[in-house]
UniProtKB/TrEMBL annotation:
Name this protein carries in UniProt: D-aminopeptidase
Alphabetized CDD domains for the sequence: DmpA (cd02253)
InterPro entries linked to this entry: ArgJ-like_dom_sf, Peptidase_S58_DmpA
MF (Gene Ontology): aminopeptidase activity
Highest taxon in the source lineage: Bacteria
Keywords noted in UniProt: Aminopeptidase, Hydrolase, Protease
Organism lineage string: Bacteria, Pseudomonadati, Pseudomonadota, Alphaproteobacteria, Hyphomicrobiales
Length: 350
């Protein structure tokens, strides 16, 4: 069951939410999960598909931004060099990045037998967070099969949130974290567009969280806050159907950090905070023979709308990841309470 900020009277910003209030409000975008939970095993894979076609043949324009680089993601270098994404995006735990990358490569080759033979190789995109505290990460339980299950489960309906897929074993601000999503509607030249965000949350010190109405954990929760070290991570995937080019997407991706800051995050030394952004409004034909490619771009004087949408939807997606997650018992009995329990007991103070 998804619980969102709407169920608790909280509001992030001023822009209207999309109908599903999820990254799948962007037409064509699909999300799927494979959840693994059995005793000390609490992990999984989440897949984000920019569109349902052949991504290698019809790439989406993309960019990434490393807010703090304590992470082991793959594919970011080529995204920023060529400005495109040519596979689905997979999210998983830190030690399963290679497995998921191999699954993406096999999937791409099955659709495009010329990869690495008569055409270029393929750039798999995988993001990760460390779920070790709640999951036996050394078991290396995630397989290529699990990655394929997540890919095959992808759909364009409401996004399941909380302790699912890659978010199964994640912690956020000391509470149970996981997968969260949100979206914003934007009007440009009389047409409706969307910017959607999906997050994998595993960051934030207990006691640092600030809600949109200014409430935060009570003083007894934060007694040792000054001694705490931020060692978590977050992967933020931003999607839009607004036509942007690579440089503009980079600028939008940077504004996801504003959403984290609103929540009380300071992107600590040990935190891996990475944003990946793409637009379905511009695609690149892998087989084009034209010397010059046409591309539509947003009037830069209107880009503040997307900056605001990125900040608001990121802030809300993080909260939704916690609100959708129930109390959780993981590896060795490690327990994470749900933010919902605290809100219902009114233990957050102004």
């Amino acid at each position: 069951m998804n619980r969102t900020i709407n169920d608790f009277g909280l509001v992030c910003g001023i822009l209207p939410q999309g109908a599903k209030n999820a990254i799948t409000d962007v037409p064509g975008v699909q999300v799927g999960h494979c959840t693994l939970r059995d005793g000390d095993i609490n992990t999984g894979v989440t897949a984000i598909l920019p569109h349902s076609g052949n991504l290698f043949r019809r790439k989406v324009v993309a960019a990434s931004h490393v807010i703090n680089g304590f992470g082991k993601s793959t594919g970011l270098v080529q995204i920023d060099e060529l400005g495109t994404i040519e596979t689905p995006i997979l999210l998983t735990n830190t030690l399963s990045v290679g497995t998921c990358a191999t699954a993406l490569i096999r999937e791409a080759i099955s659709q495009n037998p010329d990869i690495g033979r008569t055409t270029s190789t393929v750039n798999p995109v995988v993001g990760e967070c460390n779920d070790g505290p709640l999951n036996d990460i050394q078991a290396l339980i995630v397989s290529e099969h699990h990655a394929r299950v997540a890919l095959q489960a992808a759909h364009d309906g409401p996004v399941e949130q909380g302790s699912v897929g890659a978010g199964t074993g994640m912690t956020c601000f000391g509470f149970k974290g996981g997968i969260g999503s949100s979206s914003r509607r934007i009007s440009l030249d009389g047409s409706e567009h969307h910017l959607g965000v999906l997050v994998l949350t595993n960051f934030g010190n207990a006691g640092d969280l600030v809600l949109p109405d200014g409430r935060r954990p009570s003083p007894k929760t934060v007694e040792n806050l000054a001694k705490a070290q931020e060692k978590g991570s977050i992967i933020i995937v931003l999607a839009t159907d607004v036509p942007l080019e690579h440089r503009q997407l980079t600028r939008v991706a940077k504004r996801a950090g504003a959403g984290l800051a609103r929540l009380g995050s300071f992107w600590g030394h040990g935190s891996g905070d990475i944003a990946i952004a793409f637009t379905t409004g511009n695609t690149i034909d892998h087989d084009s023979k034209a010397d010059v490619a046409e591309m539509r771009v947003l009037n830069e004087d209107r880009i503040d709308l997307l900056f605001r949408a990125a900040a608001e939807a990121t802030q809300e997606a993080v909260l939704n990841s916690m609100l959708s997650a129930d109390e959780f018992v993981g590896r060795g009995g490690a327990t994470r309470v749900s933010l919902v329990q605290v809100l219902r007991r009114s233990e957050l103070k102004p």
